[in-house]
Amino acid sequence: MLMMHRIFGDNLFDNENWFETPLDKEMLALERPLYGKHAKHLMKTDVQETDDSFQVDIDLPGFQKEDIQVHLEDGYLQVAANKSVEKEEKNEKGVYLRQERYTGSMARSFYVGETLTPEDIQAKYENGILTLTLPKKQPEQISHKGNIAIEG
User: Fold this and answer.
1) Model-level pTM?
2) What rounded mean pLDDT belongs to the chain?
3) Which of 106, 113, 117, 151 lies 20 to 30 Å from 24 when distance is taken between CA atoms?
């Protein structure tokens, strides 16, 4: 019996397909250009609680501030990032033999409650990390929706 340990939905054993050959892995990578089965792990997030707020740090390396949208609606904080795919085979430096940096879209949402407004949330993007600061509020507030400006 193979014991699988789960911590927050991740396998302790990262390889789900034990009998794949290197050729199989290369062929599967061609079908899934956004890092294949590991694309779901790209928007790594840390959440830290303080006495009066929550701080959410999201890794978005290689993205520009203009590529990131943060939106609050019906109690859900939605973070989306989109980097265009450049399929040019050759540039002034030569031909790409391998491209592993992420291109494409990713999104994530968090339920933050219906007491926050977009004005309550502070967003900052610096060195590939989006930092969102969400104050703790009492439930008497009315929910709002709208975009959140990103500093940086």
Assistant:
1) 0.62
2) 76
3) 106
